[in-house]
Amino acid sequence: MNFKAEIDIMPLAGLLDPQGKAVSQNMGNLDLSEITNVRIGKHITLKVDAADKATAEKKVDEACKKLLCNQIMESYTFDLMED
């Protein structure tokens, strides 16, 4: 079976997000001062060929833990759907 994973990786809530802070500070320059506390992360899509959804979820989780996400500084969530 083929699956598509949509992965979101974000900085941990307690850590400084320099990109997000820079964007937040410049919102006022764009007359968007109502927008604050911007956090910037990564969105990754990938395809997985697996026997079933549970196996595909394990593979995506393993990829996140081993390569895609630095768990010291980031957290991740993902959605998996048949492709």
Quick tags:
83 residues; alpha+beta; Mth169, Chain: A; three-stranded antiparallel β-sheet; 2 helices
Explain this structure:
The protein has 83 residues and is an alpha+beta fold. It has one domain (2-82): 2-Layer Sandwich (Mth169, Chain: A), CATH 3.30.1280. Helix content is 30%, strand content 33%. It has a three-stranded antiparallel sheet with strand order 2-1-3, covered by helices on one side. The longest helix is centred in the C-terminal third of the chain and has 16 residues, at 53-68. The N and C termini lie close together (8 Å). 10% of the residues are buried. The mean pLDDT is 97.
What's the gist of this structure?
This protein is an alpha+beta fold and 83 residues long. The protein contains 2 helices and 3 strands.
Quaternary form = single chain
The side-by-side strand order for the widest beta sheet comes to: 2-1-3
| The CATH top-level class label | Alpha Beta
First-residue to last-residue Cα separation:
8 Å
Stretches where pLDDT is under 50 for at least 5 consecutive residues are none
Compute the number of structural domains. Answer: 1
* Residue share in helix: 25-40%
Shape: elongated
Mind telling me the C-alpha Rg? Answer: 16 Å
* CATH homology group: Phosphoribosylformylglycinamidine synthase subunit PurS
> CATH topology, what is it called?
Mth169, Chain: A
- The total strand number stands at 3
Instruction: Give the SSE string.
Output: EHEHE
CATH second-level architecture: 2-Layer Sandwich
Count of runs of 4 or more consecutive helical residues: 2
